[in-house]
């Protein structure tokens, strides 16, 4: 929000800010609902809706949360997993502070059509992120980008200062060691995780050419959703706000 927010004061939330906040304008917004708001100083506050006319809302600010959002811009490129694993990735990575999640198709991953064949659920992904955002008291909802091919997914990483790909066959560079040894801490990171069968060698070479660094998460073979969650957790711990009081 523009300007400064103060405890004990009322704030006006216009339609644009409500939509940007969590996609909450509409049936999900009502008097009594509690939201996390961030002001121009990047300070976050808890506020309770006291009125909503279908367009704008007024809220009473009752708690100072400090900073609910990380200063690290974090993008996850996730090869589309099977079953319910994408929902788990969305929920847990939202809690970890991801800004954008890009589901993509790789050589060994399922397709969106196969994924939704039994019951279409991909249309719920953005709402799943919104619910996770509310639960962990973040100030904004991460964007769940449209499903796309790997090459198209990379357009989301164009401005990232650090680009990493998890590859289970990489034994030379551990993610934690790479992050600790960085001479200049980046403020934007893209982290790519392949499918259950792993990235193909052709895909790895392609990503090498696009500036991605290969990293390992240890000697054990992790499921794709575990790699995404652990990887983002380590990145936030070393470069972001995880564990910071």
Plain-language structure description:
It is built from 8 helices and 11 strands. By secondary structure, it is α/β, with parallel strands linked by helices. A hairpin with a 4-residue loop joins strand 3 and strand 4. Helix 2 packs parallel to helix 4, helix 2 packs parallel to helix 8 and helix 6 packs parallel to helix 8. The longest helix has 16 residues. The protein is globular. About 2% of the residues have low confidence.
Quickly describe the structure:
By secondary structure, the protein is α/β, with parallel strands linked by helices. It is 29% helix and 24% strand. It is built from eight helices and eleven strands.
Q: Number of DSSP helices? A: 8
Low-confidence stretches: 22-26
Please bin the fraction of helical residues: 25-40%
Provide the CATH superfamily of the largest domain.
SPOUT methyltransferase, trefoil knot domain
Radius of gyration: 19 Å
Highlighted features:
single chain, 245 residues, alpha/beta, Ribosomal Protein L25, Chain P, Alpha/beta knot, 2 domains, seven-stranded parallel sheet, four-stranded antiparallel sheet, globular
Write the layout of secondary structure elements.
Elements: E1 10-13, H1 15-22, E2 34-38, E3 44-52, E4 57-66, E5 73-79, H2 85-95, E6 100-105, H3 112-115, H4 125-136, E7 143-144, E8 148-149, H5 150-153, E9 162-166, H6 175-181, E10 188-193, H7 201-209, E11 213-215, H8 224-239
Parallel strand pairs: 5-6, 5-10, 6-7, 6-8, 9-10, 9-11
Antiparallel strand pairs: 1-4, 2-3, 3-4
Helix pairs in contact: 2-4, 2-8, 6-8
């Amino acid at each position: 929000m523009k300007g400064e927010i103060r405890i004990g004061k009322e704030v006006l939330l216009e339609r644009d800010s409500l939509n940007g906040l969590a996609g909450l304008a509409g049936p999900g917004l009502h008097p009594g609902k509690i939201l996390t708001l961030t002001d121009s100083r990047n300070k976050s506050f808890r506020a309770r809706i006291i009125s909503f006319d279908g367009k704008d809302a007024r809220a009473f600010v009752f708690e100072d949360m400090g900073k609910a959002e990380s200063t690290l811009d974090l993008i996850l490129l996730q090869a589309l997993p099977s079953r319910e694993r994408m929902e788990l990735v969305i929920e847990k990575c939202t809690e970890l502070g991801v800004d954008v999640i890009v589901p993509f198709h790789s050589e060994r991953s399922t397709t969106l059509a196969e994924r939704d064949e039994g019951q279409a659920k991909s249309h719920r992904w953005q709402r799943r992120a919104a619910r996770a955002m509310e639960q962990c008291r973040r100030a904004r909802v991460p964007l769940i980008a449209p499903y796309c091919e790997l090459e198209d997914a990379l357009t989301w990483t164009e401005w990232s200062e650090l680009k990493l790909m998890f590859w289970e066959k990489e034994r030379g560079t551990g993610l934690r060691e790479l992050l600790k040894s960085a001479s200049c801490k980046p403020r934007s990171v893209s982290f790519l995780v392949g499918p259950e069968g792993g990235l193909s060698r052709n895909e790895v070479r392609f990503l090498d050419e696009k500036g991605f660094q290969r990293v390992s998460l240890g000697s054990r073979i992790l499921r794709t959703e575990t790699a995404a969650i652990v990887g983002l957790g380590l990145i936030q711990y070393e470069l972001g706000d995880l564990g910071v009081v």
